[in-house]
Amino acid sequence: MRLVVAALAMMMMLSARGFRVPTSPTKRLSSLSSSPSPNFTPTPDLISYLTSSPTPQYITAPMVAQSDLAFRTLTRNHGATLTYTQMLHARNFVSSKSFRDDNYDFNPKLEGLKYNNPPLIAQIAGDDVKFMTEAAQILADSGVDGIDINLGCPQAIARKGNYGAYLLPQTELTTEIVRSIKKKLPTTPLTAKIRIQDNIYDTLTIAGKLQEAGVEMLTVHGRTLKENKTLTRQANWDAISQVRNCEERNEELGMRLFRLLFCGATNSGLDIDATITAT
Fold it and tell me: Residue 240 — very low, low, confident or very high, per pLDDT cuts 50/70/90?
């Protein structure tokens, strides 16, 4: 069954009035970060939740310094069916308590999440198998509904840290990370975000290897590493459609499927409609 999703990096032209920010957020986050709420029940099967929900779905993409609790709450109130935390650097998250305290804004006690609310996925980045696995373990224990691996960031800091889109072509390492996390957390949904490659064959090859290693859902950004919204305004929807068509053929052959999310160049409602039409 094909899942058609418009994943948006929303530019919210709205005012989040009336949202109260704690006077001492770091202190409050620290006090809540040790364990999930005993009354909190994560979405039992994230993939089934997405598959059974009406399509298209509207998902807020993970954005550094943007996808915080206030932003996620705002987008949920305007119809988001799935939200992500901002990207968390795995090594820093595991080794630095101050980093965790400053970024741990997704504990269920803060989110106020209940079963059947829009689920939450935590995104991590890094190239160290040990730290990526430990970060995933901490996040899964906190009650998030899934773990996402960032294999799509094109920024210079990602090149310096060897993560994001720079790590993506290193398939031996990326699949080792995926297998390690999946072995540690066999029942936690594992997803990844990638960018298209210079040709469709490489894109499909990488996607297939991630799937074989244990990734259950893939977000495909319709630009290459060298492209961005300044150099290339429009995402390559044709390439994304080819990924989708490949999955449809796999379905006909009875093969295990990815759940696909599509993103890139979606800054308004009109862009979203165009994305759905094109893909």
Answer: confident
- Enclosing domain of residue 202: 5-11+46-278
Find which of 51-60, 105-114, 173-182, 266-275 is predicted with most confidence, using mean pLDDT: 173-182
Positive or negative, the CA dihedral 100, 103, 106, 108 is: positive
CB hemisphere CA count around 137 (13 angstroms):
13
- Number of independent structural domains in the chain: 1
Per the CB < 8 A criterion, the answer to whether 247 and 260 are in contact is yes
Asked if the model's pLDDT at residue 116 lies above 70, the reply is no
226: its two tokens: 């060298």
Q: Which amino acid is at 159?
A: R
Within 10 Å of residue 221's Cβ, how many Cβ atoms? 27
Does 157 map to a domain? yes
Q: Is residue 189 part of a domain?
A: yes
Residue 258 has pLDDT above 70, yes or no: no
**Residue appearing with tokens 């099967």:** 45
Residue 145 lies in a domain: yes
Buried b (16+ CB within 10 A) or exposed e, 128-156: bbebbbbbbbbbbebbbbbbbbbbbbbee
Q: Look up the CATH number of the domain holding residue 55.
A: 3.20.20.70
Q: What is the mean pLDDT of residues 7-17?
A: 35
Q: What local confidence, expressed as pLDDT, does residue 215 receive?
A: 92
**Mean pLDDT on 74-82:** 84
Catalytic residue, from 153, 165, 190, 257: name it: 153
28 found inside a domain: no
CA distance 127 to 139: 17
Concerning whether 153 is annotated as a catalytic residue, the answer is yes
Strand partners, 234: none
